[in-house]
Amino acid sequence: MTLFKLSLRNAKRQARDYLVCFVTMVLAAALLYTFNGLVFSEEIQNLSRLMKNMKSIIVLVSIVVICIIGWLVSYTTNFMLSRRSRELGTYILIGLENRQVARMFFLENVAVGGIALSFGFLLGSFVFQILRAIVLTMFDVSYQFSISFSYRAIVLTAIYFVGIYLLAQFKNRRRIRSMKIYDLIYFERKNENAMIQKNGLQKKIFVISIVLGMIGTLCLMMRDLLLGIIGALCIIIFLYGFFASFSSGVPVWFEKHAAQKYQKQNLLIFRTLSAKLSTMGVVMATIALLFTATLVSEGTGMVFRAIFVNRAEQVTCFDLMLGFREQSEKAIKDFMEAIEDSISVKSSRRYSIYLGENTDISDRIEEKMQNVSTYYNEKDVLMRMSDYAALRKMLGYTEVKLEPDTYLIHCRPYVAEALGNWNQTIAAGRHTLRFAGMHTEIFAQNLWNVNGHGFVVVVPDEVVQDRPVSHHIYALMSENPISEAQYTLLENRFDQIINTTWDFDTRLIIRSAEEAETASMTVMTVFPLYYLALTLTMTSAVILTIQQLCETERFQRQFALLYKLGMEHREMRKALRTQLAIYYAMPAIPSIVIGVSFIINLGYSVEPGTMEGVSHPLVITGIALGLFFLIYSLYISMAYHTLKRNVIGKILLQHIFKQVKKFINIC
Asked: Which of 258-262, 308-312, 456-460, 620-624 has the highest mean pLDDT?
């Protein structure tokens, strides 16, 4: 058999036997291609002028991702070498030279890498279409599904992947060429050193780490920034201390619960876990931190998305809105002319917001929302009923009437909750007004120089005649959505007026521009965070899985002995499932505690009324955990089925073979 045929045969077997590594390479190539496709998509970049910045952001994140994937590929190929070292040493023993064996190993890994890259392009093109559909939907652009390939994205992905892959293969090639036969044959049996050698010190660290873990968890649940930082530090110390000393904690537990030691498969499961963790405590703690970073990235991305979407919805419900203080009539007239020249106006209204006499309503809101500092005006702000009725008509809201000597409040929903059963009278000049109701439709109440920051008091027109003006507003609804070209023209004209006669306490809001900015900021913030989160999840899961697969031979010896002692196949499968469940849960549980606490605290720390509906902190937490476990469970499933086939399956085949041989001998 020629060296090429031998390499090809080994490559086919390798892709089957080392499914975890192959799937990892496919996913890595798919991730690189997907986000490179976003970088080179002119369709996406032309959606908004802000999207031009997406290329730089994706490239910066890609640098970090490439470094992570490069280390991951090196780790997986080193695992392949360790698993096949005995076979490669045998080739040298029967007469092949080191350079021939190194070339054979190099060729078969290049073949597997090429196949993985091809599958990565196919999977990446499909995932890119999903991201493309999401982006176009965010910009309210019609989407049609079509499988297509970006040649520039393919070339760049190939450069990244081939560079990463070849570096790892050349490293292993040099290693094989310099290794002796003995080193190759026994390379797989090389042991790792335990982190902490003294058993007494391990016990102390184990107890201290458990205490710090409980303290850190309690601090994270207090929803206080300083306590949260202290809690996070305690959790980090807990992670490294716990995993470094776990091997001593198991015997201590069994000493206090001797009756549990020999029940079911407890001794086998925990003894195997403690033996493994005694040499990989730092790795497990680091993986737990990577899992935490994954959940934090996913949760932060969704919180940012909620902030951006809420801002776009609440900033203005009008197509154009201009807020300003006392300005010259000429400046106002100039800008109105620019608007009329650029936009087909459907309806418009120019009006004023007035200052009331007191802060009764603001005080009530602050009293009920003590965790939120006040950001309202120095006095409760007022609006004339005639302006309010005209604005409601422009927005298509139901008509509202106001009786003499009464007032109503228009506010955001969370303000209405804070006011509760408000039914107080208010004074405005010589008028005393009775409460007549509350409305919570979207009414541009999220910024300064708008319809009240959070709320506005609507009063009869005559009430505000003697009240000072807070600011003026010009609101407009257009016949057609304002295009980006129209927005650019108005913005330039607006800047010219501000730089000449207006002060800087003005604000121009155009709904289409705000929506485009929101979509752009979401894409440029959320997508890179998820890019990083997916890479970290995949990396951590691969390390855990490879560490388990490295124990295949030891599992075979253990379960073969247990089978001879009478353990049934059903019990062996149950023991294997239990052991894997505990092994994969150990780094995930503390990560979930930290990540969930962070996401919830972050969600409740933003402006009230932002995290609602699908953006509620608990919903975001559930989505983040769901995405995390989607990838994590894939690797758990691959590890279980691989070990079941290579360990329990081989024992079953050996049993069948012995029974058949015994039957033949009898015959």
From this structure: 456-460
Q: Which residue has the tokens 């076979």?
A: 87
The counts of H helices and E strands in the chain are 22, 9
Cα separation, 464 vs 466, in Å, equals: 6
| Phi/psi at 318 (5° precision) | -100, 155
One-letter amino acid at 134 equals: I
DSSP string for residues in 268-286 = HHHHHHHHHHTS-HHHHHH
Cα-based torsion angle of the residue sequence 589, 595, 597, 600 in order, rounded to the nearest 10 degrees? -130
Angle at 622 between CA 612 and CA 606, to 5 degrees: 35
**Which of 359, 295, 270 is CA-nearest to residue 529?**
295
Question: What's the distance, CA 559 to chain centroid?
Answer: 40
- Mean pLDDT, the chain, as a whole number? 80
Report the share of the chain in percent with pLDDT over 90: 12
pLDDT in tens, 231-254: 878 888 888 887 777 655 555 555
Query: How many angstroms separate the CA atoms of 483 and 489, rounded?
Result: 10
Rounded CA gap, 323 and 302, in Å?
A: 31
Average pLDDT for 442-463? 88
The model's pTM: 0.76
Residues 255 and 647: their CA atoms lie apart, in Å, by 31
Instruction: Return the H-helix or E-strand segment holding 456.
Output: strand 455-459
Return the C-alpha torsion angle 285, 288, 292, 295, nearest 10: 170
